[in-house]
Amino acid sequence: MEKQVLQEKFITKEPQASLGTLGILWAALRIGTRNGKLLVSIMIYVSISFSLLTIVRHLALTPILTDLSSKLTSLDHMTRGIIETDETLNRGIIKDVVLLLLLQSVILVFSCSILVFSSVATISSTYEAYTAKVLTLKDTFLMIRGRWTRPIITSFYATLLSFSMITLFSILVGVFSVISYVFSLILLNRVVAIFEVACYIYLAAVFMFCVVVSIVEADSGGLKAIHRARELMKGKTLKGSVLMLIFLLASGTVSIISLVLMRKREKQGWVRLAIQISGVWALCLAKISMFVVFTSSTMNVERAMRRLGWKEKKVSMLPFILVKLS
């Protein structure tokens, strides 16, 4: 009963009218402070994990890449000199390539595992903050154990749909590019390019909503989560896309700065690694912030169902649902 009273107080305290982008960001900042210690712990854990993975990647891949580069240079000299290539050299190149692909695959698996942990932990803890419940790190791990499969399944379906749409857009862009080249319609080419970027941002926003829905909704996952996210995006596409654009620009800025700084330190391997790790921490902060913002964009389920015309449908057991973007 006390928990319900706290929820009602919070609902009436938070603005239920239209929120702009800045209002959503401010609301996310306020709700993030409710489980601030836990979010900081998640941030540190995820950043350290990615940093260790970056160090392992550097130590494991650098010797292989150096050896492969040397062998390819030798092969190039043999080819130019019309000398019969050494079979041992060819086998060595193939071995390095296979080992490189294997290590990259292992690193990708670990990266995805860390990303799943960070998304489920951050979204769950942010969601629970709306119920005035303070979680511990142990509670978060218990939640992850019961929720980690849903975002993976949802991400798989969302990736397939996104890839299909991106492929279709690429074909259309190619067709319009040919038309604009033939008829010298430069403006048309630019309009199509802008449209493609806008579609990518929209798909990224829908993808993020799908992940959040699959985690906070016990009965949502896979195609159902995608359908729910699309319904919730109706009339709120612009604000959702603007939020995603902000985080894409932030992540892109961090990546560009890191690349520029690393290029200036080409021969200083450990300095480059330190710059790369600093970039990893900044990107982790941006990613965690994105999870908090998209999760904090919530509204009461009954009000959401009423607005969307789902009054007669089964209401989820959870007291909140995405998206307070209208």
From TrEMBL:
Keywords: Membrane, Transmembrane, Transmembrane helix. The chain crosses the membrane at residues 38-60, 97-117, 152-179, 191-216, 237-261, 273-297. The keyword Ion transport does not apply. PANTHER family: ABC TRANSPORTER PERMEASE, OS08G0107100 PROTEIN-RELATED. This is Uncharacterized protein.
